[in-house]
Amino acid sequence: MTETMLGVVVVDLGLLTAFLGAVSLVKPLAFLGIRTRRRAALLLALGLVVVVAGASLPAREVRVAVPRTELDRFAPAYQFNEVHSLIIAAPRERVYRAIKSVSADEILFFRLLTWIRRFGHPGPESILSAPERQPLLDVATRTSFLLLAQEPNREIVVGAAVVTPPGWRPRRRATPEDFRTFRTPGFALAAMSFLVEDAGPGAAKVTTETRIYATDASARRRFAAYWRVIYPGSALIRRMWLRAIAKRALSPGA
């Protein structure tokens, strides 16, 4: 098990334990051996301790030895990442067009999970509050994300600052070079890519990877706690995103 997944598993176990304890404070779940509210309170406290412990686990920095992709060029070092792949029985060109065209409404659970992430508030237009029937990557790059690179029929990379110092506001729109060289303390930078590769006659493999680089220990701790809580939802969105890409690429006239 990787360090990233260990932290996620520990936090998830803590959240589950705390949830069962909280429910048992209202009505003890005797079938789970939680027969008294005192035991439920202990379980709730234990779950919260486990969540804090999991969120506090260290995150090792990984560095790419030999850059192979645009993602490697813009995010050669990272402490957190997730990777998901899918082989689609369609040519690379159609898969690439599908990546650029898929909207939020085509991604199963996307609206629900982003609504939860926003705590039910509508919020301004962004990837978390995307308009209907508009390509999701277009929404991302005209709001909070920066288009870092695109190689037609092969790769798209976007990036954003996901942790910033309190009160910080950008003075201007960043450039891809700013993103690549930025190392000011107190930030965590996320880069997300879609990479399309040949996978045999008439087939392509599409891989989406997200990497996060925290510029100092404080930002790393702040992001670790957040990442280890939201990772299951994030992973589900990305898997459903790949399925939506496949569906669009395989549809007539794609």
Give short descriptive properties of this protein.
8 helices; 7 strands; alpha+beta; 254 residues; 2 domains; two-stranded antiparallel sheet; 44% helix; Alpha-D-Glucose-1,6-Bisphosphate, Chain A, domain 4; globular; five-stranded antiparallel β-sheet; 20% strand
**What's the rounded overall pLDDT mean?**
91
State the separation between the terminal residues, measured CA to CA: 39 Å
Shape: globular
User: So what's the CATH class of the largest domain?
Assistant: Alpha Beta
Count the beta strands: 7
Give, in spatial order, the strands making up the sheet with the most strands.
3-7-6-5-4
Which consecutive residue ranges, at least 5 long each, have pLDDT under 50?
A: none
- Biggest sheet, open or closed, and with what strands and sense? 5 strands, antiparallel
Give the helix level as a range of percent.
Answer: 40-55%
CATH-level-2 architecture of the largest domain: 2-Layer Sandwich
| N-to-C SSE string, H for helix and E for strand | HHEHEEHHHEEHEEH
Task: Enter the CATH topology name of the largest domain.
Answer: Alpha-D-Glucose-1,6-Bisphosphate, Chain A, domain 4
The number of helical runs is 8
- For the record, the count of structural domains works out to 2
Radius of gyration: 20 Å
